[in-house]
Amino acid sequence: MDLREILKRRRMVRHYTGEAVPRETLERIVATVRRAPSAGFSQGQRLLVVDDAGLLADLAALAGPLEPDVEPGHLDAYFRDATTGHESYEVGRYVSVERVGDEVVLDFNRAYNPSCALSPFYNCPIPPRENHLRIAIRAGEMTPLDTHARR
After folding, report:
1. pTM for this predicted structure
2. Closest alpha carbon to 110 in 98, 120, 95, 99
3. Structural domain count, the chain
């Protein structure tokens, strides 16, 4: 299996227990990150390990959401469809999840590109396999105008 297949199949499951991570585990993780390859060997990452719950909450409040101008409690579904990579952005798009009473509505006319489609300063999440649609969603934002110029 090649790297592309591994990345396509990878899943992130985040379940936080609130238990402290042992110091030696944190040190192993930091050492591994420091040895990880980087573009042009720049080693541009900066690591800050915070083990104080109050300080962590304060930092999280300062950092805000991962996407600019997103309100707390807002929920998006990140998806790929048959247009991804040639008619729409190469990684995928978001669509906001709207709650109407007990129902959930996905209005694909309002699909939009993630910030990483417009700026190299954001990272794109990869839509999980469950969010890969076989049909073409030719609605909402498609390929950003400058995407191909940045390659």
Report:
1. 0.52
2. 95
3. 1
Q: CB of 140 within 8 A of CB of 94?
A: no
CA distance 53 to 59: 10
Cβ atoms within 10 Å, residue 23: 10
Question: Is the pLDDT higher at 151 or at 31?
Answer: 31
pLDDT band at 119 (very low <50, low <70, confident <90, very high): confident
Closest CA to 127 of 77, 88, 74, 75: 77
Predicted confidence at residue 93, as pLDDT, reads: 92
- The pair phi, psi for residue 5, each rounded to 5°, is -65, -40
Structural tokens at position 1: 């299996």
Mean pLDDT (the chain) is 77
Do the beta carbons of residue 79 and residue 139 sit within 8 Å? no
Q: Which residues contact 41 (CB under 8 A, 6 or more apart)?
A: none
Which spans in the chain are helix H?
A: 3-9, 23-35, 53-63
6 pLDDT above the threshold of 80? no
Domain housing 140: 3-150
Q: Decide if 29 contacts 47 (C-beta within 8 A).
A: no
Quote the pLDDT of residue 7.
Answer: 57
